[in-house]
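Hi everyone, sorry if this is the wrong subforum. Our group has a chain we'd like a structural model of before ordering constructs, and none of us has done structure prediction before. Sequence below.
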Amino acid sequence: MIATGLRLENFRSYRTLELKFGPGVNVFSGHNAQGKTNILEAIYICSCARSHRTARDQELIFRGASAYSIELDYTLANGTEESIKLQYGTQSPDGRPSNERRFWHNRIRQERIADLYGLFNAVIFAPEDLMLVKEGPIARRRFLDLLLAQIRPRYFAALQRFNRILKQRNQLLKRLRDQQPMTGSGAFIARPDLALDYALLDAWDEQYADLMAELIGDRFELTGRIRERAAVYHSLISGDRETLDIRYRTMSGLKPEQSSEERCSLIRRRLEQLRRDDIVRGTTSIGAHRDDLDLRLDEQPLKLFGSQGQQRTAVLAMKLAELAVFRDLTGQTPVLLLDDVMSELDRRRRQALIAAMRDCQVMLTCTDTEQVQEELRELAGGQPLSFFHVDCSQVTALDTPGGVPGDTD
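Answer:
Right subforum, don't worry. Here is the predicted structure as tokens:
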């Protein structure tokens, strides 16, 4: 998979921008805060409809504008040429700003933004990825969910349904909590007028268990693949001095080797056992929304006992595993986006990164190409390198990294 062109309007620091990419390594150099990362961010949004830096689309709009658009041209492994266009913040018929998101595939308007998943694949490695270790479970669930959504678009649809049912179930639990009388000992007092609410709760529980079993089954499988690949990469990077282990942590009793039916049955029983407590609290106590990845280095929690260097090595191994799993499961090689990470890695880590991505198209940002000249030549593997200089959101194509100007976009 190769990105061939990018057009931006009112995106981040760019009023307008049009770029053509080379098939190998594309290097964007320049001082900090000049707009390099914004280019990679726009490409990544075309793979999953979300930024790796913010969850607020409003923050992506050029100051003073009311909407942004991103259009990406790309070529699949079989040579098919396709395009994706995303637009946010269009005006409504009465002239007021609208927060609507729109999406076109091959210039045909699509009804659902969810249909974007799986069309164009990209893996990004950025300084923010350390949050996989440092933050709480949300960051790690997001890592799994975004990867699965691109590999298996049906997963994203199931996740959306699960979240809707979770919301409806919690609303019903709160209503029952407010209406259900209790004895002094905490037992519920039967009320015939609540029978319909309890019947509805039974229906939500059945759908909830089915979807939770499906999601967790996919997450178990993906985590197993990531775990196997990441362990190999981590061993190479660390020189076999440390062992990285990644496990999916979910409701007790659920195991990777179980069938979906076995998981579903167990979840239903647990929901029934926890029903009273869920009503009292007004929230659902078990589910895919509470799960996590357990990251361990030499059997110790990485977040608590890992140094900054060890955490960075583990995250690098996970991102390389993500790239490999994409190839394994889709037959497509994603575009690899490296946001100012080469300078953060020592030579051993840079060599491991290069070894894993020689057949990828790469978009790479850096402040000084001289620092990574040797790695860039090795990474290109004989393919021509494409250099761009970024200064105050003006992008100049260069004939060489030394600064021979080409065309200015």
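For your construct planning: The two ends are 24 Å apart (CA to CA). The CA atoms of residues 1 and 78 lie 9 Å apart.
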